[in-house]
Amino acid sequence: MIPAPIAVALDAPDLETAARWASLVTPHVSTVKIGLELYLRYGPDVIASVRGASGVQVFLDLKLHDIPNTVAGAARSVARLKPAILTVHAAGGAAMVRAAVEAAPAARIAAVTVLTSLSEADLERAGISGPPDDAVRRLAVLAVGAGAQALVCSPREVAAVRAEVGPDITLITPGVRPAGADTQDQARVATPERALADGADLLVIGRPITGSADPGAAAAGIAAALRKASPTAGRDM
Ligand SMILES: O=C(O)c1cc(=O)[nH]c(=O)n1[C@@H]1O[C@H](COP(=O)(O)O)[C@@H](O)[C@H]1O
Question: pTM value?
Fold first, then answer.
């Protein structure tokens, strides 16, 4: 069975929990995501611990955002860990995105457009007016022009972004919630089936899986629903 195109966000307080979640979900999903909580506590060692023997794809979500020279150095530092995907903030600008792309050529640099936790009202308060789609599309075009091979956006914008950047860019969507699940701090959400149908290549899902009493079964359930909705999903991611 091809693992589903899901990156499980291992937002765990400790390494033991993260490694346990990783071993429970990896038969069902293509990718595990390590973010700031684990990386800032354990550093590079966390990668080997969650990669384990399974060889699952590791997505390193550090959301780098600084001047180009600093981001290049940071990307170079983590490139030796061989993450399949490394995130930067598109809002850091084209030169910054390009610096990351050049510094970590073996990783797929994924540019985060507008965080999925932000609503239109939040954006307005930050001085970004208009529907989130506009800002997301602008940042997507900027990042792809700077060499980003992947973009992170919410499932609400993924169809518009796909239309803008074409078929070759990997579109990654957090803000994914099975029907009826608590949205928690996410503002722009959709179901896994919707995200995939609208053109996402990889769905980032954390708490709906890791917060379940049986993360393995939760991952298997979402993977089965995706296979049913889209039998060819997961061939690339
Ligand atoms: O880059 C990300 O992965 C990311 C970008 C974004 O806009 N929104 C977002 O939620 N994420 C990450 O995706 C994961 C979502 O987790 P859940 O809300 O628990 O499903 C978290 O690890 C976030 O850090």
Answer: 0.97
